[in-house]
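Troubleshooting: if your tokenizer reports a length mismatch, compare your output against this known-good record of 383 residues.
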Amino acid sequence: MRSISIFGATGSVGTSTLDLVRQDRSAWGVKVLTANRNAGALAALAREFNVQDAVVADENCLPELRDALAGSGIAVSGGRAALCEAAAITADVTVAAIVGCAGLEPVMAAIEQGNTIALANKEALVSAGEVMTAAVKNHGATLLPVDSEHNAIFQCLQGGRTEDVRWITLTASGGPLRTWSQERLAAATPAQAVAHPNWDMGAKISVDSATMFNKGLELIEAHHLFPVGLDKLRIVVHPQSVIHSMVEYRDGSTLAQLGPSDMKVPIASCLAWPGRMDTPCEPLDLAGIGTLTFETPDEDRFPATRLAREAALAGGAAPAVLNAANEVAVAAFLDGKIQFTQIAVVVANTLANYAPPPPATLADVMAIDTDARARASAMLESN
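Known-good structure output:
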């Protein structure tokens, strides 16, 4: 039996992970489950899997969690410090699926224990890439990428050497607004932006897909996960989302990882690594799909990938500023305060007006994130 801890158990990645655990309960012992505020759902999962610890990030929800788990023998706690303490518990696999910078400290706590981490938290490498990768090296931890694109690259690189890589190509669906004109994009509603044609995701990441910021953030992640150089990382739009990414080697061979648009596939890859495991996903029907198409990204209509590449080239604090400003801008768009096309404008202006020193510690990253959010918010209020 292998042990597993899941941070963000009630979110989409967490629930997909638990669905896979349910496929063979005898193979897994669940140590820790956490949630942000959904104490009721967390308590139900904690009882179902007879976990060691249940942690709610919002301490205001702790009384509800305590009541729901009374008499269960499950340890209950709440707050940021409790999340970090739970992340420091040794497990065979720690799934890091807390959304946003709230997940940074638990990820670091798991890294410092030398754990194997199935990483679904983008901010860990986007905002704190240099800090996190240095900690991974120092503590002998293992990072396994859960994002479908990075997991695809990871699989395509197995058995190969990074010095033999000519290109790493991240594929992007292009989102639901891919074919829209600039004028239509300016009038896009939140409901239209989150209506992803291929993936079932939360509102924020769905908007990021529509703007292409999701792919820009993934480019920065890939830069830290696969150190081949930014000049060897590129993006291609692939609307069918069947090929999840590709690696081209110097001999002209291109390896591609294909699969259904279901996060259970990359999660299963991480859980079973270095082996394989069964999933409930339907087999890929290439004949039924018929045609796979590819397009060059349009960085005039969707400047997010250009902004992300520029931030990655600048290094230091720039990726953290980009990520923070994007989160503020997306929230403003979802609240109806700005237009869809203004998301990139807010990010670009924040980057242009805020260039703090490079972060040396996780505390530095968190301070930059806080300051960048404040600046982006002030910019929105002044317009």
